[in-house]
# Entry
Amino acid sequence: DSGVTQTPKHLITATGQRVTLRCSPRSGDLSVYWYQQSLDQGLQFLIQYYNGEERAKGNILERFSAQQFPDLHSELNLSSLELGDSALYFCASSVARTSGSREQFFGPGTRLTVL
Amino acid sequence: AQSVTQPDIHITVSEGASLELRCNYSYGATPYLFWYVQSPGQGLQLLLKYFSGDTLVQGIKGFEAEFKRSQSSFNLRKPSVHWSDAAEYFCAVGTYSGGGADGLTFGKGTHLIIQP
# Structure
């Protein structure tokens, strides 16, 4: 158990809909990272928040957004969903501000299926 | 921008045999390197990491990896594999510079199959 929790575990929805994925980092970790894992793209970094503020963006679509709350949990919002958004979405947390300086601990993931 | 290449998509090894999974990276400075393992339906578990210092690093579950700057490689090894090692293995590089895209950059993964 990494100490990172994600809810829900599975999510099935229809095209055009909007969903919210939730992540609680390990106690004491200030950074939250979101990743998408799909068969064709592999594991891709989406976005990072550090202590409530957006710090870095990767390959995140404009239809996707995230935020980190004062209690440090984070939510990833996916809107106008398309079939191609079906994937496993991981949250990871770290004590560090940058991805290189300390290891990241991954949650179990949320499997999103868009029908 | 950094990149990671794992040349082997699948590797099959007999139980008890030795294992080496290859990883090559591209990064403009000294990299921070990681190996993660993902079992079916599970999240990613950190096996080991290299930040600096000794180029041979030890990890969990009997794994080790060697950083070779001249070859831009960070290969994962295990002297004797167990059936429970069957999983997907990911090599990743992290940055420590500010600004722009950050987050770990992962290779495509190597699927390890253990033969009895």
About this structure: Residues 7 and 22 of chain B are 7 Å apart (CA to CA).
